[in-house]
Amino acid sequence: MVYYFSFRVIQNNIGDMLNGLGLGLFIAVISLFFGIILGLIAAFAAVSSNRALNNIATWYTAFFRNTPLLVLIFIVYFGLPSVGIMMGRNVSFIFTLSFYAGAYMTEVFRAGLQAIPKGIIEAGQAIGLSRFNIRRYIQLPIMFRYVLPSMSNYLISLFKDTSLAASITVPELTYFARKLNVETFRVFEAWLTAAFLYVVTCYLIAYLLRKLERKLRIE
Amino acid sequence: MNMVTATFFAIIIGTTLGILFGFILCYGNKYVKFPFRLYVDFIRGIPILVTIFSIYYILGFLLSRVGINLTNLQSGIIALSALSTAQVAEITRGALQSIPKGQIEAGKTIGLSFDKIFVFILFPQAIAQIIPPWINTATEMTKGSTLLSLIGVPELLLTAHQLVATNTRALLYYMFIGLIFFLVNTLIQRFGKFLEKKASF
Amino acid sequence: MTDLLLKINNLKKWYGTNKVFEDVCLEVRPKEVVSIIGSSGSGKTTLLRCIILLEEFQGGSIILDGKEIGYHIVNGKRKRHSEKVISSQRILTGMVFQSFNLFPHLTALKNVVLGLIKVKHMDKSEAEKIGIKLLERVGLGEKIHSYPSKLSGGQQQRVAIARAIAMNPKIMLFDEVTSALDPELIGEVLNVIKQLAEDGTTMLIVTHEMRFAYEVSDKVVFMDAGRIADVGTPQEIFIEKKLPRLKEFLSTFNV
């Protein structure tokens, strides 16, 4: 059983892999950003008194959380063109992941909003704040403080989900790992490096976010 | 059909091993815990797809050296099981740890040995806490089975994808697949709520 | 008659099939301090909440400073005002809640000035000047930059009072503001309210603090099972206790 583990192979390809890693992070952050916006809109729709809005929000969340991400990716990238909507692969993936993230965020935000004691909202009404102002200056700031830990954890999860971009040949880390594997048959180098990079990045993000949380708590 | 097999085995194996691992993670001593901790953290730290590819390629490579050839489906099942084991282990560990220590002590005072304490006192209480996240894992396995299409396992998504290549109604096909998964998962969720009700007191 | 600040006519409120109160009539003159006492469930809190328009009511009217608030007649039908109008009417009343309800993410000062800046569109520095003065008036000049979580219950309630006063309402409503406080903290809040009374603030106070009600009120209202059962001076209500129900109720307070 002879297998020469070659660091040279890793060396030659680390550039590509790191680029892929960077792209993955970038995609994760952008998707989280859009996901937050979508999540906010849907969360307010979910708690509003309008029955129709409630239903739309519920269906949105249910659909995107119960359908496999890969199917969603295919629907957007392969399916939409057949009705005339074409997108480049990167854009398509970010689009899909944003809606996917938005569905998760909706749940998080909705729970956060509902956790705010009613009395505080009434206090806002009692001093004459408009509904919009209550949302903006009271509900949102309080909700964000509640959900910050979940949001930062989700970034890590989202980052791991970016690996699925490889299925539509987005030049992400997983794509390069597979390419390396298929072209050179160097199974260990390819996948152990990829795995290592992912794990380390996840730990780093977790560590940084925990530090950030501690800083924000001192108020 | 492969999708069902894959998911099914992944859940079964994952749950059994996962509970065992979780038990070890909760009650084991430092040295015993360590390799399991490493395993769980590692698997949960890398994307599912990477796990699937790694197992497929690396295990495939290693085993072919000793003459065993795994089918794509088998590698897929191993990979998914590995993931579900790690998830269930974490869930079980959390649930077991949240049971007040007093329960163990109470069991000891009436003379029960630890294994009996676990089976009759600890585990029944842990079950209620394990079920909701476990349903989540089950859902994830169903969704994860689609990833097996990327290692060539002929399942629902791959079949649709191949059909689509010869068809212009791509969107409908994919949305239909999506709908199927959506329904399956929704059913699983309902089942989960049902289990939850039965398990709580 | 025309110098009444608040006039409530035959107010009626139902909650589903439950009658909360009925035929409630009340008159409050400027600078008057009125206490409302009664057992829980008698509708006292709901009455206050109707005045500040946090609750709807099905019958009767509330006339504040000569204008009817909350509802108006449109095409012969009684309709509730739009959110926008309701918001503007709410600042005519100030409310202090039993559970303080301070905004946890804002400092004491910011709690007090939020309404001034966002509703009255005051300039920030001007608003803060007013806010600081008010907080000093309730004895919290040193805590203006503290967050609610760092303040005791009594201090939080005093900030809540300052927040309500800041909007310069025509009438202040106090809803059992000491019921959620530890006994040793009740005094500081009651002192602030007493001070406000001496400064001429018109107030409607729902309370269980009978001695305090006796000392500070011009008029006392006794509510029982959704109706106003008795109205009188503190002397009439607490000392003479003519109504048997009133006597019964007060006996539980060891007054």
Features:
heterotrimer; A: mainly alpha; MetI-like fold; C: 255 residues; alpha/beta; 12 strands; 27% strand
Largest sheet of chain C: 6 strands, mixed
Q: Reading side by side through the largest sheet of chain C, how are the strands ordered?
A: 8-9-10-3-11-12
User: How far apart lie the N and C ends of chain C?
Assistant: 34 Å
CATH fold name of chain B, please? Answer: MetI-like fold
Which structural class is indicated by helix and strand composition of chain B?
mainly alpha
Which stretches of chain C of 5+ consecutive residues score pLDDT under 50? none
Break the fold down into its secondary structure elements and pairings.
The complex is a heterotrimer of chains A (219), B (201) and C (255).
Chain A: H1 7-47, H2 51-66, H3 69-79, H4 89-114, H5 118-126, H6 131-161, H7 173-184, H8 187-217
Helix pairs in contact in A: 1-2, 1-4, 1-6, 1-7, 1-8, 2-4, 3-4, 4-6, 5-6, 6-8, 7-8
Chain B: H1 2-27, H2 30-45, H3 48-65, H4 72-97, H5 101-109, H6 114-144, H7 156-164, H8 170-199
Chain C: E1 6-15, E2 18-28, E3 33-38, H1 44-51, E4 59-64, E5 67-69, E6 71-74, E7 77-80, H2 83-90, E8 93-96, H3 108-118, H4 124-137, H5 153-166, E9 171-175, H6 183-198, E10 203-206, H7 210-216, E11 219-224, E12 227-232, H8 234-240, H9 244-251
Parallel strand pairs in C: 3-10, 3-11, 8-9, 9-10
Antiparallel strand pairs in C: 1-2, 1-4, 4-5, 6-7, 11-12
Helix pairs in contact in C: 3-4, 3-5, 4-5, 5-6
Would you give an account of this structure?
The complex is a heterotrimer of chains A (219), B (201) and C (255). Chain A is mainly alpha-helical. Chain A is 81% helix and 0% strand. Chain A has a single domain (7-217), classed as MetI-like fold, CATH 1.10.3720.10. In chain A, helix 7 runs antiparallel to helix 8 (187-217). In chain A, 45% of the residues are buried. Chain B contains 8 helices and no strands. The mean pLDDT of chain B is 81. Chain C is α/β, with parallel strands linked by helices. Chain C has helices at residues 44-51, 83-90, 108-118, 124-137, 153-166, 183-198, 210-216, 234-240, 244-251, and strands spanning 6-15, 18-28, 33-38, 59-64, 67-69, 71-74, 77-80, 93-96, 171-175, 203-206, 219-224, 227-232. In chain C, helix 6 links the parallel strand 9 (171-175) and strand 10 (203-206). In chain C, helix 3 packs parallel to helix 5 (153-166) and helix 4 crosses helix 5. The two termini of chain C are 34 Å apart. Chains in contact: A-B, A-C. Chain A binds chain C through residues 117, 119-120, 122-131, 133, 137-138, 141-142, 145, 219, and chain C through 52, 54, 83-84, 87-88, 90-91, 93-95, 97, 99, 101-105, 114-115, 118-119, 147, 160, 163-164, 166-167.
